[in-house]
Amino acid sequence: MNKLDLLKNGIIKENPVLVLLLGTCPTLAVTTTAINGLGMGVSTMAVLICSNIVISILKNIIPDKVRIPCYIVVIAGFVTLVSFLLQAYAPEVNESLGLFIPLIVVNCIILGRAEMFANKNKVIDAAFDGLGMGLGFTLALFIMGSVREILGSGAWMGIVLTANLIEPMSIFMLAPGAFFTFGCLVAFINYITKGRAIKKKEMGCEGCPTAAACAKIEEGGCE
Amino acid sequence: MEQYNQGNLVVSSSPHIFDNVDTSNIMRDVIIALIPAFIMSGVIFGMRAIALTIVCAAACVIFEALYNYILKKENTVSDLSAVVTGVLLAFNLPASLPFWMAIIGCFVAIVIVKQLFGGIGQNFVNPAITARIVLLISFATPMTTWPLPKKYLGMVDAVTGPTPLGVIAMGSDDLPSKMDMFLGFIGGSLGETSTIALLIGGIYLIVRKVIEPTIPVAFIATVFVFAIATGNDPIFHLCAGGVILGAFFMATDYTTSPLTTKGKIIFGIGCGLLTMIIRLYGSYPEGVSYAILLMNILTPHIDNLTRTNVYGGVKNE
Hints:
The complex is a heterodimer of chains A (223) and B (317). Chain A is mainly α and 223 residues long. Chain A has 9 helices and 2 strands, in the order αααααααββαα. In chain A, a hairpin with a 2-residue loop joins β1 and β2. Chain A has a two-stranded antiparallel sheet. In chain B, 46% of the residues are buried. Chains A and B meet through loops of A and α4, α5 and α6 of B.
């Protein structure tokens, strides 16, 4: 796989949020405005690229049995770094994202890419994978945030669009609106890829988060 | 059903009973049953209420036709179910609601709740109720601005006031008379206020065997008993708000209510309990729509728990 494919892979074909359905918790929780979505996406992307690189470098040193704790330590280190950077340079974004910044540690996209990709690929490839996946995540969150902000508060990036003449549908700022927007985006991605986006089967059991508890692992995977 | 005509003889597989009961006949009866309340809404709130009802019905029909056309499906407008949904939705809205908001409600009811889940008979919650709740959450102020009945205003219709339940929730006791509440000259959603008109419609549906009385009776009785048990006026709680409209026209929707009699009783009691709990202890003054929505979601479980054994079948272990 060349570098460009790695990059494109994360944006549409294996978009972590809209195709793999990972990281839905921050996706639903923080995307009340476009700027929040962007902030969350970029923060996660920074952590993802750095952790992918470090884990790829350390892949021969980390013992297999304790790899998950090791990944978490690496990821948590970068999350702390990002958190401090946000506090220093973007205090407003930090304020509105709140608890979800420290929670990037347990974001399953990052752990998933470490487990699925970084620990068996070259450093450069891992970095591009992190960039692609991060861009896909950022893009998805940005679109979600834009849709919800435009419909839910009649503004975009903080600029009022409707001149306050039309009352916005505040349900889009709440959880039901988040789920509705999310569902529509997933359906849209499915439509433009004509259902050819990655299937669970192609992902294989090693990429599956429930592999340890799955009964079908002996049958060679899911249907 | 397959039929073979052999001269005067008709050969067909069982069952052999033919009746003209189909969806459009049932829906026609529901529309007839809604006419008294429709007329009363015009008397109480004026032409605006009539116009809003017509806009909602038309918007629902158009959304249904458009959806079927775009997705190249069989056109189901002629079964009249979209008209019923539109009228019921309008009955749940304040008469002063802007038309465009009502049309968004129609979109939610027909496209999102009904058609995306597979069309008539496949929706898991009542479309009109869900649309009302979406509108209530989205546009809180216009959805809770209730115009007062014309009777008190002469011909001015710009004045608004709380519903009787709203009065209670605010801790006041400036309530309308029982007779006004029974006839419907109170603030509220445009179709829910006139108890007498809704009762006429409900009894018509029961006489025509479109609905069974089980759910309405269980629902209303629960509200009645709960009101007495908590020291409230039971007649007030039946006539104020949407209990009668909900019990006869919303909770009895075939798709979203249980099939068995036992299940229907559980469903009705659940609706009544939730309604009264929300009214008396919740932060909203009215809870009929939330009660019915929650019980709609529980319907498959109620059906599972009250499944009857097939005659001659073996009891499940």
